[in-house]
Amino acid sequence: MLIAANWKMNLGKFEIDQFSNFLQSNEFHDKLDVCIFPPSVYINYLNTRIECLPISIGAQNCYHEFSGAFTGEVSPTSLKDIGCKYVLVGHSERRINNNESNLYVQKCTSAAIKSDLIPIICVGETLKDRESGTALDFIEKQLIESVPSSFENIFVAYEPIWSIGTGKIPSSSEIKEMHKHIKQVISSKFNNSIKVIYGGSVNPSNVSDILNVNEVDGVLIGGASLNPKDFLAIYHSTVKHLNLYFSNN
Ligand code: PGA
């Protein structure tokens, strides 16, 4: 089970200090993977502030080359070098704002794997696709074109675009259907298995229902991960869901 916090282009040194002080007061379970994705300029800073905690650091994107004349790009090798474990690829905000195509996402994913990072490939349909009943087909195409032919350990984040930052989430049966579909596509087209996490308006009140869907292997949290109290509330709901107990209980 993975709890991933996508801070997007938010929080600076002052808030990171406050956030990490708050985290220090919490007990973390080693059976539950937690990863924070801060803005790339703060990866190192956050890492030094939480290095005593069992929390991983990830990057919100990476380039598909390792070094060279690529002004402004972020190399997956450098991300590994500064301590990243995971990298998000193909987040819908990047697909839309930076014109990232499925092929581009696939190239970045392959480079991330070669750099020993665990990629989390984001996929998600628009409201138009959802309403017209083509969501499953849309996601299948995104997967076939974005996932590299061979891999050992990657995640898919199912993030319906209409759910990101809107407070609207799909019903449990819609989440179940899509996560099942994603796992089936990966099994039939790639002869492989994959973990699928859900993202889009996850918050402390809806996380239990989302985690109750068997096919959900974790959550990718945007807005609610910026508030340490909400983030830890989601963490504790997940601990409860998994029936994990702390050593001093
Ligand atoms: P949200 O964002 O939780 O604010 O909807 C999720 C994401 O974009 O990863």
Task: Identify the notable features of this structure and list them briefly.
8-stranded parallel beta barrel; TIM Barrel; 249 residues
Describe this structure in words.
The two termini are 21 Å apart. This protein has an eight-stranded parallel β-barrel with strand order 1-2-3-4-5-6-7-8, surrounded by five helices. α1 runs parallel beside α2 and α5 (102-114) crosses α7 (135-146). It has a single domain, classed as TIM Barrel (Alpha-Beta Barrel). By secondary structure, the chain is α/β, with parallel strands linked by helices. β3, α3 and β4 form a beta-alpha-beta unit. It contains ten helices and eight strands. Helix content is 40%, strand content 16%. 2-phosphoglycolic acid binds at residues 6, 159, 164-165, 199-202, 220-224.
Short description:
The chain is of the alpha/beta class.
Provide the fold topology:
Elements: E1 2-6, H1 13-24, E2 33-37, H2 43-50, E3 56-59, H3 76-81, E4 84-89, H4 92-97, H5 102-114, E5 118-123, H6 127-131, H7 135-146, E6 155-158, H8 172-190, E7 195-199, H9 207-211, E8 218-221, H10 228-241
Parallel strand pairs: 1-2, 1-8, 2-3, 3-4, 4-5, 5-6, 6-7, 7-8
Helix pairs in contact: 1-2, 5-7, 7-8
2-phosphoglycolic acid binds next to strand 8.
What separation lies between the terminal Cα atoms?
21 Å
Output the CATH topology.
Answer: TIM Barrel
Spell out the CATH superfamily: Aldolase class I
The CATH architecture is Alpha-Beta Barrel
